[in-house]
Amino acid sequence: MTTSPTGRLARVLVLAGAVAALAFGATPAATAAPAPAPTIAAVDFHGIVALSNCSGAVVRTPSAASTDPALVMSNGHCVALMAAGEVRQNRQDTRRFTLLNSSGTGSLGTLQANRLLYATMTNTDVSIFRLTITYGQLQSQFGTTALTLSTAHPTAGQSIRVVSGFHRAIYPCNIDTFAFRLREDRWTWLDSIRYTSACHTIPGTSGSPVLDTNTSQVVGVNNTLNEQGQRCTLDNPCEVTQNGAVSIHQNIGYAQETYYIAPCFTTQSRLDLTRPGCQLPR
Predict the structure, then answer these.
(1) How distant, in Å, are the alpha carbons of 38, 81, 83, 126, 134 from that of 205?
(2) pTM of the model
(3) How far apart are CA 144 and CA 32, in angstroms?
(4) Fewest CB atoms within 10 A around its CB: which of 21, 98, 119, 258?
(5) Residue intervals in the chain for CATH 2.40.10.10
C-alpha cells in the first residue's frame, strides 16, 4: 500500500485516532438547492485534501444539495489496518484535513470531520468522513467545491490523473485493465483498476482520487503498488484471475472503483448500504 513516506501500511495504526459510535443528528431538508458542481476545465488540485498520513478529496454525489454535510474520501487503511471482513460505520471522528488551493501551492484552510461514516478494507479499500460544514459552506468559506463521484464503471484505456494532496503531485496515465481479484496480505479487492506504468505512485498517495481527465469526475481511489515484485504480500499485491491464475506486476499501481458509492447516500449525506446500486460491503 502507498501510505506515509516514512513507512508503509503497518504504520497507519499509530496515526489513526480513537473512535466511538454515536447516532446521526442531521435531518433532511425538503427544499435544498443542488450543491455547486466543479467547473474546472482540467484536472488540478481543486477539492483535494492532505491527511496526516495519506491523501484524499472532498467528494459529492451527483444529487448532493448545498445543505448536505460535505464528505471526504480516502482509503480504509488510512484509518487503520482492519481485519478482513471488518466494516466500520457511523463512528465519532474529529480528523482534520488540509484543503489545497487549485494549483497545489498552498492551503485554503483546515477541514474537520465529526464522523467516520464508513471504512473497510474488504472488497475495496475506502473511508468516508462527514465534515462539520456543508457543501454550501465549503463554497462560501473556502471558495471551492467538491469533486463529483462518477456513477459509471470506468473503462480500459481511459485517461486518468491520480491527484495526491499529501505530495501535492499529479500522476498522469491511463487505465490499463481491471484485476478480477487483487490480493495483498490478508485482503482481497474486487475488480480493481490497474494503471499503466506512467502512474508510478509512491508512499503517501494512498487515498488519492483517480480522476477522469475528460470530466474531472472521480472514478477510483488509489490504494496500492507492487513495490518489490513479491507475490501477494504486504505492499506487493498480486492479481488472481477467475480460474485462479496468479500474476504480479512490479512497480504497477492500483486503485479501487468508486462508481457504486454514490448510490449508497441519501439526503443530508446519510449512508444507507441497502439502497439499490450500493455495493459497499456491510
Answers:
(1) 22, 16, 22, 13, 26
(2) 0.88
(3) 19
(4) 21
(5) 9-19+42-147
DSSP string for residues in 25-90: -----TTPPBPPPP--SS--STTEEE-SSSEEEEEE-TT-BTTSEEEEEE-GGGT--PPTT-EEEE
| CA-closest candidate to residue 233, choices 178, 166, 183, 160 | 183
Single out the residue of 6, 7, 13 nearest to residue 235, CA to CA: 7
Residue with cell 433532511: 28
Find where cell 477539492 sits: 47
Rounded-to-integer distance, Cα 100 and Cα 262, Å = 23
Antiparallel, parallel or unpaired: β 147-148 and 55-60: parallel
CATH 2.40.10.10 for the 9-19+42-147 domain, yes or no: yes
Report residue 93 as a C-alpha cell. Answer: 471522528
How many CB atoms within 10 Å of residue 248? 16
8 Å CB contact between 268 and 69: yes
Residues written for the chain? 282
Domain 159-257, architecture per CATH: Beta Barrel (2.40)
Task: Report how far residue 26's alpha carbon sits from residue 132's, in angstroms, rounded to the nearest whole number.
Answer: 11
For residues 151 and 259, the answer to whether their CB atoms sit within 8 Å is yes
Distance CA 229, CA 249 (A): 7
pLDDT digits (tens, 9 = 90+) for 134-184: 999 999 999 999 999 999 999 999 999 999 999 999 999 999 999 999 999
Q: What is the β-pairing status of strands 87-92 and 96-100?
A: unpaired
What is the Rg, in whole angstroms, of the alpha carbon atoms belonging to the chain? Answer: 17
Query: For residues 3 and 185, what is the distance between their CA atoms, to the nearest angstrom?
Result: 16
Residue 21: pLDDT over 90 = no
